[in-house]
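User: Please run a holo structure prediction.
Assistant: Happy to. Please share the sequence and the ligand.
User: Here you go; the ligand is coenzyme A.
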Amino acid sequence: MPLLTPTPDLLIRSFTLDDLPALSALVKANRDHLRRWLPWADRVEYPSDEAMYVEMGIDKEARGDGFEGGIYRRGVLVGSVGMHYVVPETRATEIGYWLAGDQTGGGIMTAAVRAVVGYGFGVLKLNRIEIRAAAANTKSRAVPERLGFRLEGVLRRCHAIRDEIHDLAIYGLLADEWAG
Ligand SMILES: CC(C)(COP(=O)(O)OP(=O)(O)OC[C@H]1O[C@@H](n2cnc3c(N)ncnc32)[C@H](O)[C@@H]1OP(=O)(O)O)[C@@H](O)C(=O)NCCC(=O)NCCS
């Protein structure tokens, strides 16, 4: 993936193994913030799981099957955004993301996802981009809503997070709906 610069302060680039110390430290410092909505934050072991995650991201990017990226604010890692996969037949992907707790509330993720959507439609020539969030995760849902994604449906009680089963909201955006 080329470097994406959503704003003069922000840079998105694919993780490499050199990013492991910063990534491990950030996930560890934000475990309580992330575990509310991201079940892996409970299970993750430092730094071996992050190494597997980064290697998996490098492999899938080499196959054209998505990427896992870091979001850097003035050079400091503050979160992550990526494409979980790319379905070749439909040219469709799903975007996932998280931010450090103390970096929320300033529009970083909306800007980051806007840039990744632009890359997906503009460079990868995707046809469809999806974002899935627990129905109760209003902060996450607000990101696709700000960017003009359509709420296409809510799958009922299909999304397990620790001992709770949540409804899952599915947002979609098509290439010809993207204003750029
Ligand atoms: C989901 C998550 C990334 C959203 O973070 P966020 O900071 O709310 O999202 P943004 O960075 O786009 O910022 C939006 C906030 O900044 C405000 N904001 C300020 N300037 C803004 C701008 N230029 N553009 C957009 N929003 C702006 C918005 O009003 C909003 O604040 P509000 O919620 O108080 O109204 C974050 O809550 C998170 O990491 N959660 C835990 C992990 C998670 O749930 N991941 C998603 C799983 S599906």
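Residues 4-177 form a domain with the Aminopeptidase fold (CATH 3.40.630.30).
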